[in-house]
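Operator note (shift B, R.M.): manual run for MerR family transcriptional regulator requested after the automated queue skipped it. Running by hand, logging everything below so the morning shift can see what happened. Input copied straight from the record, untouched. If output looks odd, do not overwrite the archive copy; leave it for review.
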Amino acid sequence: MLIGEVARRSGVSARMLRHYESLGLVRPSGRTGSGYREYSGEDVRRIFHIESLRAVGLSLREIGRALDDPGFTPADLVDDLIRRTRERIAAETELLTRLDRVHATGPAGWEDVLQVLAVLRALGSPSAGARQRAALAPVDEVPVEALVEAALDERDPVVAGALRWALARSDGSAALLAEGLGSPVPEVRERAVRSLTELPGDEAVALLRDALAHPDAVVRNRAALALGAQGEAAATPVLVDMIVAGSNDTDAADALSVLAGDAAAADRIASLLVGRIGDGTTKPPARGRLTQALAGIPGATASRALADLVGDADRAVALTATYLLRLRGDG
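Run finished. Output pasted below as returned.
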């Protein structure tokens, strides 16, 4: 079979076939009487093998070794191909993400494109100062997806604060931050909920309400403190749990006092606190914190509870209750 016929059947150009021959990858089995290259069926099969190996990313040098070295084992080479392919996919994915973010800003001209690219580059800078300046750039220059990604990754507290401020001025960040609550990394979940607590609007409040049932106590607690400060009664049970656990218990007690703004709410909160004090599983330190929390709850229910606790078997609880009653003018 002459070179033109081989090229037609294989889809490999005659020029490339000659190149393969110069590299020693394919050697025509013979020559015609006129000196033209003549390929056998085995030669053509080898050409197809070469093309198959090229298709999976092997270099011509690697192909030659794979086909001619009797001791060649493909496992290591395949592992290397997998690694290189993953690196290429990661690079292409990063490029696609960057292009999507540029497109989302609706650039009017190349100056806008370059400005957005500069901000994106700065957000990934090793310099904290550069990242902070990028966070403080005008909102229309920073894609919200990039801000969210940066906020969830940021470890520098100053830069993190700037990013949260920027997110609070951006539209569409709440849902993206909520996805961060599902991260397997605790620090990312904490950054996500903290950013949500600083967002304005009903969407953020709704997401924080959902976070009250999150399996991560850090997420639950931050959500409860933020909602309690906004007068959201749904936060009450988690705030009480925080006091029992001794986790930001002073802040939790302050939030409960905010929620106890009317008589009915005050009585409900006092009843919850009293119930936990009387629970046989509640340990003495937690009973003391719960008693202290009654100080910020107005109304008759809290006063009666403190009066009953004056005779408590736990001397620390009894003394705390006595002191608090005097402060309230009930003792």
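Quick read of the result: The beta strands are 30-31, 37-38. The chain has a mean pLDDT of 90.
Leaving this for review. - R.M.
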